[in-house]
Specification:
single chain, mainly alpha
């Protein structure tokens, strides 16, 4: 009976699986070797955030099950950031402040990606956004290639069945 009472909801399980797939995709070597994303804490944060955003965008406005899965994905994303900070040795008294800043940064990225994607096919805003976030302070020579990657991932997600995604199954395209 207790197992049944404390069993995670399907959306929670799907959100965890989607986040695991975000992490795996954000760690694909080609993002760093071919597309020149910096292999730094900041660079990885940007790629985790970008892939999380793309999934959240795909789930947005797709009904209650998609909304619950999106919330579970976001909650797992935040938990992952919290765990990463603690593993890096950030003290308990500072974690809350850092998490607030990271949360604000993520929400800023969401607004910026929404604005940049809303003006497509003009890619100027998307490329500028990728340059100032993913490539911040580094060589942004591959910004056009990473913008191509973002649009290809977005199209790949749009072509996948919603039922599969809300079940935690997502297939990313190549980097």
């Amino acid at each position: 009976m207790l197992k049944r009472l404390f069993k995670p909801r399907p959306a929670q399980l799907a959100g965890r699986e989607l986040y695991a797939r975000v992490v795996a995709q954000a760690r694909v070597p080609g993002l760093y070797t071919e597309l020149g994303a910096p292999d730094t804490v900041e660079g990885r944060f940007e790629l985790y955030s970008l892939h999380t955003y793309l999934l959240l965008e795909r789930l947005k406005g797709q009904g209650p099950q998609a909304a619950e899965t999106a919330q579970a994905l976001f909650d797992t994303y935040l938990s992952g950031l919290d765990n990463a900070l603690r593993e890096m040795g950030v003290g308990d008294t500072v974690v809350g402040k850092r998490m607030r800043k990271l949360g604000e940064a993520f929400y800023g990225r969401v607004q910026s990606y929404e604005a940049a994607l809303a003006v497509l096919p003009d890619r100027t805003e998307l490329e500028a956004l990728v340059a100032r976030t993913v490539y911040a302070g580094t060589d942004a020579a591959k910004v056009t290639d990473l913008a191509d990657y973002v649009l290809a991932q977005r199209a790949a997600l749009a072509g996948q069945a919603l039922e599969a995604i809300v079940a935690g199954d997502v297939a990313w395209g190549p980097a």
